[in-house]
């Protein structure tokens, strides 16, 4: 299996990163999980015959590093790589990062996935979310009740509210609407976000299988990548 380099972000400046989340340990842990994933990263022989994923969606794309990496790993020009971010600076950075690395990304400015339904209902094969997971006051969280005030605040990229779960908990119903039968959902959590509780909750609500696929200590925090897989026998009608 080939090694894939981290996307080139040399076009982004310190000024850009005053308004856009700069790739950090959580980003690189997610890249490692993607590169090691048996369905995403294939060897050359299997790559030629692949037809999955057809639709990839990243929520909160920030610099565009992750979706650019996914597009490189998937290696199919006929796949769709969609991204959303509540921050217009991030959407512009995502588009520029795709262009810099010669992949096509389609960034959209929106809150989570609010404008993608019902058009993409049960159509997303690969769903990725590195949510704002740091426990904070609720007032710091970007949400429909306090937009547009946090749109240009970098704190919206990491402020997760109570238990670091407010944005994630608000997104999970969207995930159920978006993820295709057999689809894969990768997300980043802190150990403090109670990953096992989330895995159990999602299993009980929708019957998805969930597990930790990668983890790493970063300073005082422990980062965890959780994978969910939706069953292939879900009615899409």
UniProtKB/TrEMBL annotation:
<dbReference type="GO" id="GO:0005634">
    <property type="term" value="C:nucleus"/>
</dbReference>
<dbReference type="GO" id="GO:0008757">
    <property type="term" value="F:S-adenosylmethionine-dependent methyltransferase activity"/>
</dbReference>
<dbReference type="InterPro" id="IPR002052">
    <property type="entry name" value="DNA_methylase_N6_adenine_CS"/>
</dbReference>
<dbReference type="GO" id="GO:0008276">
    <property type="term" value="F:protein methyltransferase activity"/>
</dbReference>
<dbReference type="GO" id="GO:0003676">
    <property type="term" value="F:nucleic acid binding"/>
</dbReference>
<dbReference type="InterPro" id="IPR007848">
    <property type="entry name" value="Small_mtfrase_dom"/>
</dbReference>
<keyword id="KW-0489">Methyltransferase</keyword>
<keyword id="KW-0949">S-adenosyl-L-methionine</keyword>
<keyword id="KW-0808">Transferase</keyword>
<comment type="similarity">
    <text>Belongs to the eukaryotic/archaeal PrmC-related family.</text>
</comment>
<dbReference type="GO" id="GO:0032259">
    <property type="term" value="P:methylation"/>
</dbReference>
<dbReference type="InterPro" id="IPR029063">
    <property type="entry name" value="SAM-dependent_MTases_sf"/>
</dbReference>
<protein>
    <submittedName>
        <fullName>S-adenosyl-L-methionine-dependent methyltransferase</fullName>
    </submittedName>
</protein>
<dbReference type="InterPro" id="IPR004557">
    <property type="entry name" value="PrmC-related"/>
</dbReference>
<dbReference type="Pfam" id="PF05175">
    <property type="entry name" value="MTS"/>
</dbReference>
<dbReference type="GO" id="GO:0035657">
    <property type="term" value="C:eRF1 methyltransferase complex"/>
</dbReference>
<feature type="domain" description="Methyltransferase small">
    <location>
        <begin position="56"/>
        <end position="136"/>
    </location>
</feature>
<keyword id="KW-0539">Nucleus</keyword>
<dbReference type="InterPro" id="IPR052190">
    <property type="entry name" value="Euk-Arch_PrmC-MTase"/>
</dbReference>
